[in-house]
Automatic annotation (TrEMBL):
Phylogenetic classification of the source organism: Bacteria, Pseudomonadati, Pseudomonadota, Gammaproteobacteria, Moraxellales
Protein name: MBL fold metallo-hydrolase
Organism name: Psychrobacter halodurans
Gene Ontology biological process: glutathione metabolic process; hydrogen sulfide metabolic process
Pfam families: Lactamase_B
SUPFAM superfamilies, per database record: Metallo-hydrolase/oxidoreductase (SSF56281)
Length: 289
């Protein structure tokens, strides 16, 4: 097993490439589309670096895995699929998120809330085969109703892709104030992850390093239990929920939440062009935050 991590500097998001080198098979986890909110322009230069790397290795892309419908960046899954193929994977509870945001954005009846935009829907305990690597889905709601972590194991090691449940120990944990979020759920989801063997490597979806520290894509279960500022050993559910809800009340909405969510719940698809050939996104007024 190999994992290669690529930082999208504008959103501080990590895209990971998980590979069975012997069988030349890989999965791409949480790919990011470049998006300029000021102009509405999209670009693929960042994710194209990931795709070029996969091509250079001669690997076949089997899966494009989304840990959840992100609120801080737009998914590049459609571009990845059109370029290299692969099946698009997300947790089956994405249907709950689709229904919540269909109402917020007042989408018409043509917007599907059955997750049929995706190829594979996973639930807790489901497995995907990637050569000799077994990928096991772990349902970890709280940040959203649909968050999944993915445990990857072969004969040599086990790693876990945690999405937005946990950040580096000096950063803490995901916020829970988006529609459908729940701090109690997040606490119990994190406990599932912290119950993994302490030497398990955790691959982060984001890193927001404190001053003097460089970005890093990984941590370990042991490091989280010892030092996570929000949820290390000794912090109980009530303490965590109080901290999380109090902290969330001070946070502004992510810079890209409005474009990101409405695209990502539709598997990375932008709305169909209107009569003039231009695609448009909606901005709900006074509906978030």
């Amino acid at each position: 097993m190999q994992v290669h991590s690529f930082l999208h500097s504008d959103t501080e998001t990590y895209t990971h490439v998980l590979a069975d080198v012997q069988h030349k098979l890989c999965a791409i986890i949480d790919p990011v589309l470049d998006f300029d909110a000021k102009s509405g322009h999209t670009a693929t230069s960042s994710v194209d670096e990931v795709l070029a790397f996969v091509r250079e290795q001669g690997w076949e892309l089997v899966y494009i895995i989304e840990t959840h419908a992100h609120a801080d960046h737009i998914s590049a899954a459609i571009h990845v699929k059109e370029t290299l193929g692969g099946q698009l994977v997300i947790g089956q509870h994405i249907t709950e998120v689709q229904k919540i945001f269909k109402q917020i954005f007042n989408f018409d009846m043509s917007f599907r809330t059955d997750a049929s935009q995706f190829d594979i829907l996973t639930d807790d305990g489901d497995t995907l085969a990637l050569g000799d690597i077994t990928i096991t889905a772990m349902y970890v709601p709280g940040h959203t109703r649909a968050d999944m972590a993915y445990l990857a194991a072969d004969a040599e090691k086990t790693v876990v892709f945690v999405g937005d449940t946990l950040f580096a120990p000096d950063v803490g944990t995901a916020r829970c104030d988006f529609p459908g979020g729940d701090a109690k759920m997040l606490y119990h989801s994190i406990q599932k992850l912290l119950a993994l063997p302490e030497d398990t490597i955790m691959y982060l979806c984001h890193d927001y390093p404190s001053k003097g520290r460089k970005h890093c894509p990984t941590t370990t279960v042991a490091a989280q239990k010892m030092g996570n500022i929000h949820v290390k050993d000794g912090i109980n559910e009530a303490e965590f929920v109080h901290m999380r809800e109090r902290r969330d009340a001070t946070l502004s909405m992510p810079r890209l939440i409005i474009p990101a969510v409405q695209v990502n719940i539709d598997a990375g698809n932008f709305p169909q062009p209107e009569a003039n050939g231009t695609r448009y996104l909606k901005v709900p007024i006074n509906a978030l935050g």
